[in-house]
Amino acid sequence: MNNLQPNGRLASLDALRGFDMLFIAGLAYLIRAICCLFTGGESCWLEAQMHHVAWDGLTHHDTIFPLFIFIAGVSFPFSYAKQVSVGRTKGQIYLKVFWRAAMLVFLGMICNGLLKFQSGPHRFFSVLERIGVAGMLASILYMNFKPCWRIVIAALILAVYGAVSFIVAPDAPAGTSPHCVEGSIAAYIDRTLFAGRIYKEGVYEPEGLLSTFPAVVTAMLGNFTGEYPSPLPRDCHRTGLVTLASSEQEAVEQFLHACRGWLFSRDACAFLLDNRCQGLSEMGFSAEGGRHEFHRHLPAAQVH
After folding, report:
1. Which residues contact 72 (CB under 8 A, 6 or more apart)?
2. CA–CA gap between residue 10 and residue 179 (Å, rounded)
3. Is the Cβ–Cβ distance between 287 and 77 less than 8 Å?
4. Where are the alpha helices (DSSP H) in 145-184?
5. What is the DSSP-derived secondary structure letter of residue 5?
6. Which of these, 75, 56, 61, lies nearest to 26 by C-alpha position?
7. What distance in Å separates the CA atoms of residue 216 and residue 148, rounded to the nearest whole number?
8. CA 48-27-105 angle, 5° bins
9. For residue 106, with 0-12 CB atoms within 10 Å meaning exposed, 13-18 middle and 19 or more buried, which class applies?
10. Of 241, 221, 284, whose CA–CA distance to 73 is shortest?
11. What pLDDT was estimated at residue 168?
């Protein structure tokens, strides 16, 4: 079925984005409230799925922000093709990518209290900052490297990050596991370099420095999903010719519809985090216009 709308947007991608936005806007709170109307509902499986885990583990709520950035990655190939088709230069596209990233970082600073003009430090990192930076870096890689090289880059990022995550924090007691809060090297770096400016002072930062790298891979995986089948032939990235065969489009649509259904299953949660599926809602990476953090928790990153 052809889901390309008259305005050039992919209906299934918009539907998936809308599903994600429902939870970001507070659907989880409504589900929790409904569960609590029934005896034992406050401790049932569904209610527990509407919370983030404290450190390690995985719930449905932990997949919402990963999907947010993943959607951004899916959208960018279509956005890039659209911009190339109207004659925009690479420099103009770069400028747009940088501008969006800067705006998201700035909005994240506002959410952290930039305009409250209160004394004392404010939180340095934010969800919006993570979306902007991860999306920007993935977009730059998409514009400059062929798929095979981007696969290599993604694999190297995850391999290095995985290896580093097994280093025990220098200030951890002897025998501490690198998988716990006290032994996490990512948490140590954040509380050392950004003391007084992290989410849980003296403990850890969910959107910390090191976890930005696998978040970039999440957006890159979205790029791969959006370009295979590609919204335009490989040589069109240089010539500006834009074509979207109906069979290619249908394949993309079927995948996105499947994602929407899989979100409700246990296997879907594993799939999403195994592939660092973070996505972005309306950062502008849409078919026409042309990102909870992947991991709140280091152990979850190591497991996947």
Report:
1. 131, 135, 138, 219, 222, 278, 279, 280, 281, 283, 285, 291
2. 40
3. no
4. 147-164
5. -
6. 61
7. 17
8. 100
9. middle
10. 221
11. 93
Amino acid at 213: F
Distance CA 206, CA 297 (A): 7
Phi-psi region of 276 (alpha: psi -120 to 50; beta: other; left: phi over 0): left
Q: How far apart are CA 285 and CA 303, in angstroms?
A: 30
For 274-289, what is each residue's pLDDT tens digit?
443 333 333 333 333 3
What tens digit of pLDDT does each residue of 112-127 get? Answer: 777 776 666 677 788 8
DSSP-derived secondary structure for 49-112: TTS--SSSS--GGGGHHHHHHHHHHHHHHHHHHHHHHTT--HHHHHHHHHHHHHHHHHHHHHHT
pLDDT digits (tens, 9 = 90+) for 223-234: 998 887 544 444
What's the rounded mean pLDDT across residues 241-265?
44
Q: Show the tokens assigned to 254.
A: 């079927």
Contact 72, 279 (CB under 8 A): yes
Cβ–Cβ contacts within 10 Å for residue 115, how many?
9
184: helix, coil or strand? Answer: strand
Q: What is the pTM (predicted TM-score) of this model?
A: 0.71
Taking every pair of Cα atoms in the chain, the longest distance, rounded to a whole number of angstroms, is: 63
Cα separation, 148 vs 233, whole angstroms: 16
Shortest CA distance to 164 belongs to which of 211, 104, 227? Answer: 211
Q: Would you state the structure tokens that stand for residue 135, as one six-digit string? A: 């999306």
For 134-174, the pLDDT digits (tens) are 999 999 999 999 999 999 999 999 999 999 999 999 988 88
Helical axes 11-24 vs 27-35, angle rounded to 10°: 60
**Inter-residue contact 72 to 280 (CB < 8 Å):** yes
Across the range 63-84, mean pLDDT stands at: 90
d(CA 46, CA 237): 45
Report the distance separating Cα 143 and Cα 45, nearest Å.
43
Residue with tokens 């690479």: 90
